[in-house]
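Progress against Task 2.4 (sequence-to-structure conversion) is shown through the following example record, which the project officer requested during the mid-term review.
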Amino acid sequence: MADDSKATDVGARYAQALFDLAVETNTLPTVEADLQALGAMIAASHDLRTLLKSPKFSAEEKGKGLAAIAEKAGLGETTRKFLGLLAANRRTLALEEVIRAFQRLAAARRGAVSAQVVTAIALTDAQRDGIAAALRTALGKDPQIETRVDPGILGGLKVRVGSRLYDASLKSKLDSLKFALKRA
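Structure tokens generated for the chain above:
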């Protein structure tokens, strides 16, 4: 647990530094698009996740790998330099958290709200649009939705907006029923 917290803190600090640099150099849209593409690459590639997280690769090897990926993907100069810095400082493990924290910062700057939605199965586009519309109505702001699949919730969904958690999962309803039955 302490390692997760530490990685999150590191990710948030690096994201804030990159965000400040992107705002200062007027490259925010480019960096945001680069990080979104990089996040999709990480999600799609087991080999890339291994490169980022494995202690078997040196900082130099990770830097070279990230540089090659950045060049092939056509990522902007600011993003490329940032990835090099992350590798040199041995912080590639925090890259996914950096991406998430940067997206939250960029959404807040646009006046959008970041929402994390957890479902038991992957959402269809129509379901995602419906959730976005409901959140827009409830919050009065455009939500930037990040989805995650967790079969452990059995059904329904959990939505986290800021520090608020709306839990409409089947697992929590069953747990509540179980608790009520124990008390009876």
